[in-house]
Design brief:
The protein is of the alpha/beta class. The chain folds into 2 domains: 283 residues, Aldehyde Dehydrogenase, Chain A, domain 1, CATH 3.40.605.10; 184 residues, Aldehyde Dehydrogenase, Chain A, domain 2 (3-Layer(aba) Sandwich), CATH 3.40.309.10. The chain has 15 helices and 22 strands. It has a 7-stranded mixed β-sheet, sandwiched between helices. The chain has a 6-stranded mixed β-sheet with strand order 11-10-9-12-13-21, with helices on both faces. A 3-stranded antiparallel β-sheet has the order 7-8-22, with no helix packed on it. Helix 3 runs antiparallel to helix 6. It starts with a strand and ends with a strand. It binds nicotinamide-adenine-dinucleotide. Nicotinamide-adenine-dinucleotide binds next to helix 7 and helix 8. The site of nicotinamide-adenine-dinucleotide has 28 residues, from helix 7 and helix 8.
Length: 484
């Protein structure tokens, strides 16, 4: 069903199963709220376990045909989907502003980044390589081919409703897999629009199935218990990821996990402070801090700490806060519990002696607004340095030596990304090697790139998305011992 929302946009609001828009099996629906007003903008079908299994049936029926579709054809469909997303970028960005609350510039940035995954994997679809070599004993050839892994269950979070969906669907479709996508229930509309774009681009019925649902646990249990499902790709919190890994272990399902982060940002005394402040602002404030890559902890050399903190405070304090539709630089957080958690972490840090340089207050109005905040003198043992803040708050901690900075940066169970700012490239590379992170931004506040392998170490995840590695996650190697 295509519904006209209160926003004036026309979007699908039913389940997308086997090439049809369907209501939920029990007729249930749930509301999607605009975080800037806390009011509903749409009501979406609430997928049941029965619907989830219907998605697996549809994906199964389409699997052989899609795997046998020539890679060039799969690539051209993805390329068309990229073009359609770009043609409709303003409309989709508007939808993301409404359902996620992000600022318009962030929404447009995400939309283009999301579309790029379709373009990148349209190019990768025709570059799935294998290997042939002579066995060391000289008796035969070792041939390795790569085949689609099979039906893939994709679960995405609310903070990047477009990019997390395309970062999974792009490589899965390029590799020849059929998919079931379960978007976050805060932001299902963007995923449904992308499903419609893939249909228009020529994806055959059943290859892509999208199931909004507020029964995530029951749906995941049912899908992961079905032996036809061979892949789970999850992006979300480490806590939920851990539960899913346990469930997936029953059928020994291949898992790619993109989990939480707690990124350190190191500013050495020889850094160009203009570059460091600009980088810190980008690393912190993309998506109002609601990013797994958000700089969560700023470690700054004592000799430049006051200057860096003052300048960052000025920049953060100058950002406008308000609804994305009004072109504010910083939109609301996604919901009440996120807002409460951010404020709680800030108040806890203050009670342990931190000084408020700027912010530290809830915003005005009914939406879930929080003012951009910089804290200095944060105690190294504060909760705010251990937990994902997921909001516009930058705690600054002072260090004296490179060794101390690396030790503090690595003092976490997370290891997604780290940022380093220095005028000495060799020193920056040495520190990059020592940091326990899957990615490092060296004199850069943004690392995300569809052509690069994105992912974390430690409890930030397993596997990589994007780059060449992203496609391999949706393939299995088959070794054939050949004698000719
Ligand atoms: P979340 O873990 O609460 O939810 C993620 C998804 O899992 C949603 O679709 C949700 O409905 C679903 N889910 C929740 N409980 C489930 C269950 N028991 N079984 C199956 N599915 C379940 O995370 P969130 O709040 O949506 O997103 C924020 C988190 O995502 C943060 O921790 C952030 O760091 C992480 N994240 C990581 C990356 C990355 O690439 N590493 C990217 C974006 C977000």
């Amino acid at each position: 069903m295509i519904e006209d929302l209160v926003t004036g946009l026309s979007v699908p609001t039913d389940l997308w199963i086997g090439g049809q828009w369907r209501p939920a099996a029990d007729g249930g629906r749930f509301d999607v709220l605009d975080p800037a007003t806390a009011r509903p903008i749409a009501s979406v079908a609430n997928g049941t376990v029965e619907d989830a299994l219907a998605c697996v049936d549809a994906a199964d029926a389409a699997a052989a045909g899609w795997a046998a579709t020539p890679p060039r054809q799969r690539g051209e469909i993805l390329r068309r989907a990229f073009e359609l997303m770009i043609e409709r970028e303003d409309e989709i960005a508007e939808l993301m502003v409404r359902e996620n609350g992000k600022a318009r510039a962030d929404a447009l940035g995400e939309l283009r980044y999301a579309a790029e995954f379709f373009r990148w994997f349209s190019e990768e679809a025709v570059r799935i390589t294998g290997e042939v070599r002579t066995a060391p004993a000289g008796t035969n050839q070792i041939m390795v081919i790569r085949q689609p892994i099979g039906i893939s269950f994709l679960i995405t979070p609310w903070n990047f409703p477009a990019a997390m969906a395309t970062r999974k669907m792009g490589p899965a479709l390029a590799a020849g897999c059929t998919v079931l996508l379960k978007p976050a229930s805060e932001t299902p509309l963007t995923a449904l629009v992308i499903a419609d774009i893939l249909r228009e681009a020529g994806v055959p019925d059943g290859v892509v199935n999208v199931l909004p649902s507020r029964r995530s646990g029951a749906v995941a249990d049912a899908v992961l218990s079905d032996p036809r499902v061979r892949k789970l790709s999850f992006t979300g919190s480490t806590e939920v990821g851990r539960t899913l890994l346990r469930t997936a272990s029953e059928q020994v399902i291949s898992c790619s996990m993109e989990l939480g982060g707690n990124a350190p940002l190191l500013v050495l005394e020889d850094a160009d402070l203009d570059v460091a402040v600009e980088g810190a602002l980008l690393a912190k404030m993309r998506n109002a801090g609601e990013a797994c890559t958000a700089a969560n902890r700023m470690y700054v050399h004592r000799s430049v700490a006051d200057e860096f903190t003052r300048r960052l405070g000025e920049r953060m304090g100058a950002l406008s806060v308000g609804p994305g539709v009004d072109d504010a630089a910083v939109g609301p957080l996604v919901n009440q519990s996120s807002l409460d958690k951010v404020d709680e972490l800030v108040q806890d840090a203050i009670s342990e002696g931190a000084t408020v340089v700027v912010g530290a207050a809830r915003g005005e109005g009914d939406g879930y607004f929080y003012t951009p905040t910089v804290l200095s003198g944060v105690s190294p043992t504060s909760r705010i340095l251990d937990e994902e803040i997921f909001g516009p708050v930058a705690p600054v901690v002072v260090f004296d030596t490179d060794e101390e900075a690396v030790r503090l940066a690595n003092r976490t169970e997370y290891g997604l990304v780290a940022y380093v700012f220095t005028g000495d490239l060799a020193r920056g590379l040495r520190i990059s090697e020592a940091l326990e992170a899957g990615m490092v931004g060296l004199n850069r506040g943004v690392v995300s790139d569809p052509a690069a392998p994105f992912g974390g170490v430690k409890q930030s995840g397993i596997g990589r998305e994007g780059g060449h590695e992203g496609l391999l996650e949706y393939t299995e190697s088959k070794y054939i011992a050949v004698q000719w």
